[in-house]
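sorry to bug you again but im stuck and you know this stuff better than me. what follows is a protein written twice so to speak, once as letters and once as structure tokens for the fold. mainly i need to know what kind of three dimensional shape the backbone takes. anything you notice is useful, everything is just below:
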Amino acid sequence: MKNKIIYWGITLCLILGFTACGENDNWVVVDDVQPGVYVSGSAVVYKSIAPAASFKAGYPDPDTDEREGVSTIFTWLKASGDLFITKADATGNIINYGKGAEVSSVTSELVAEGPAYKVTEDGLYFLIYNSNLSQLTIVPAKFGVIGAATPQGWNAESPFTSVNYNESTATVEFKGTFPFTKDQMKFRFNGDWGITIPYDASSTIKFHTNMGSIGDSDGAVALASSSTELKGGGKNLSVPLGAAYDVTLKLDLRTNKFSVSAVQGEIIKPTYPEELYMTGNEFGNWFSDPAGVVKMVPVNGASGSFWCVRYFTANQGFKWAPQPSWDGGDFSELASKEGYSIKDGNAVVDADGLYMVYIDMVADKIVIEPAKVYGIGNAFGGWDAATYPFTISGNKMTITTTAAGDLRIYAGSSAATTDWWTREFNIFNGKIEYRGAGGDQAAVPVAAGKKVTLDFNAGTGTIE
């Protein structure tokens, strides 16, 4: 039998000769409902069973192989109406399905001619139809921004302040103003990176709950004032400049495709952490052993700059965070990096050795290089920088004083832009103590011929 289907477009209306379509009409009547599964009822915004109302394959997690028999749709639903799932087969038979037994808080069985589904509030919803088990999953799609560039980092979404359905354009728009830093971000809903539902009697399937760019790599596509196409599980978007952005996330209900545009507002002066920590396989076992976590030393007078000297083993991962825990903001690289590589998302060096790590957040770079530590001052015969180097032996460094005087020691770095004393340290009671952001350290007088030994990993030093 033949049925009526509603199809989008005033232009198509004119092509087909439906001159009765008014200026504000968005839907055109054509013959024959195509085989498929559709959302229907008074809760939906479509006037009848329409191509735009059909479930389509999409947004499965790439780690999931199973795809056959499941399909999805993002759609606007009204709390005042009834929602049904309509199936049309190739012979023209149409059956409405309602809500059956609940499988979980978001998933239920479908029952032919069953009671209507209801939602508690108007809004955008993500629906998953699983023909293998004849089940429907309904999840509110309350999008927010997430990522290192956003107010809550990768910990949680920062929600949009408004969401509206525009009937004249058949679009859903999320809007909000966010203070972004120069970093990366994307869009997410449901407070997690996926929705896992039963796939068949013995396995599950996972679906994306995030939207990213269609670029080839994270950060390759920048947030812009022009419309940028998005896809489920896409790559991170880069934020080109720290500023307040008016962001519009848009869903076209005709195509079920997302896009984003962002208008840059007032530039925000970047802020940098007062502390920075390094952890990894050899440094606190990824924060599980607090005593082994390295507290980076702030460069005196240089906001956002930190350093440390440590012995590293090749190919043992490490990274940094602004606190000694997994509470967001961790990173393994900045815009520029030298002297190391990334493996499985972590920083690694390619050879065992003592290294100087210098992080300059203002310049957006990290430099790791073989450590160079120097003595300076009267105990070594002069005040010329980079003239009296320590000798490296395994994981330790040594130097012998040549005259009586106060012991002064500092770490060198090719990335440093400040005087030597901004990276100064000394030995007190057998321990290495760093000047950091503080004032002059207490004097450490030594005689000529004293051997000074440093063990940075142990945090100890001797003067013999």
In short: The first strand starts at residue 4 and ends at 8. The two ends are 100 Å apart (CA to CA).
